[in-house]
């Protein structure tokens, strides 16, 4: 038998020998109580922290306060310019690795009128980055918080996947990641903003319907766009102001008022069903 054949036979013998496998199983079994105890202890600690946060109504107040950087980030969406190309959604998915069937932002369609007098309206939507964000208030693990400029973001190091933020958002702007079981939402692409760039959706929009920037800066792109609309006597509106969340997104054009009733609400998220052509038609009352 050659040396190579001897090594192969020796390897097969070790593989077929049940003793090493029995020893491994014994060691694994002896370690299970330790692993289980550790996991149980960690789970108990998380549960205690979550319970403490829920029971303490003031636990969220620190997270509701943005860093004192003098900036106030906001959005202006000119629905008169949007023609429903979905470029903003594609760039958002690419930038943030959003899985199929889920969305950080979505454009809703609405067909109005009867032939030959018909019109199609488009409404790009995402997180409103509310000043009084209900998702921050209900987050039991303290993951939702304010970043620079008031951006509402998720800390994925501590997000426990509770899902209460989805139930609290009046705009359906949060979804639970199917793999990580964590909350996902628009964060203003703050990794880009920190580098002096705009959120990925803004420069991608060919109609220049999306405007983002510092509302405290009168020379910022968003401030200038809103001023131009006001100079044209165009009314700037917000969605679901009755929720008193103080959203930081304004809209121009009729789409916001017309499509609002079709948008997801508390406990819901953006859905692929929105793209079903049968849902574009204005509902008969």
């Amino acid at each position: 038998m050659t040396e190579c054949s001897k090594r192969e036979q020796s390897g097969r013998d070790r593989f077929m020998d049940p003793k090493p496998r029995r020893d491994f199983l014994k060691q694994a079994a002896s370690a299970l109580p330790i692993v289980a105890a550790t996991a149980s202890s960690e789970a108990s600690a998380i549960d205690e922290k979550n319970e403490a946060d829920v029971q303490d109504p003031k636990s969220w107040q620190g997270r509701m306060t943005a860093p004192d950087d003098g900036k106030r980030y906001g959005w202006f969406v000119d629905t008169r310019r949007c023609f429903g190309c979905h470029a903003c959604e594609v760039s958002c998915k690419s930038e943030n690795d959003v899985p199929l069937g889920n969305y950080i932002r979505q454009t809703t369609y609405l067909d109005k009128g009867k032939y030959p007098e018909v019109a199609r309206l488009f409404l790009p939507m995402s997180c409103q980055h509310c000043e009084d964000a209900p998702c921050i208030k209900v987050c039991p693990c303290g993951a939702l918080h304010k970043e620079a400029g008031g951006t509402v973001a998720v800390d994925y190091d501590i997000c426990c996947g509770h899902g209460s933020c989805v139930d609290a958002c009046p705009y359906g702007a949060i979804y639970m990641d199917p793999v990580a079981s964590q909350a996902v939402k628009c964060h203003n692409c703050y990794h880009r903003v920190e580098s002096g760039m705009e959120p990925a959706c803004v420069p991608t929009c060919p109609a220049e319907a999306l405007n983002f920037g510092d509302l405290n800066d009168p020379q910022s792109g968003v401030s200038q766009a809103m001023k131009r609309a006001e100079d044209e006597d165009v009314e700037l509106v917000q969605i679901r102001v009755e929720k008193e969340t103080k959203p930081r997104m304004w809209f121009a054009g009729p789409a916001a008022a017309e499509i609002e009733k079709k948008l997801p609400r508390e406990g819901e998220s953006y859905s692929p069903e929105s793209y079903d052509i049968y849902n574009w038609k204005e509902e008969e009352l």
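The chain has two domains: 3-54, 56-279. The longest helix spans residues 18-55.
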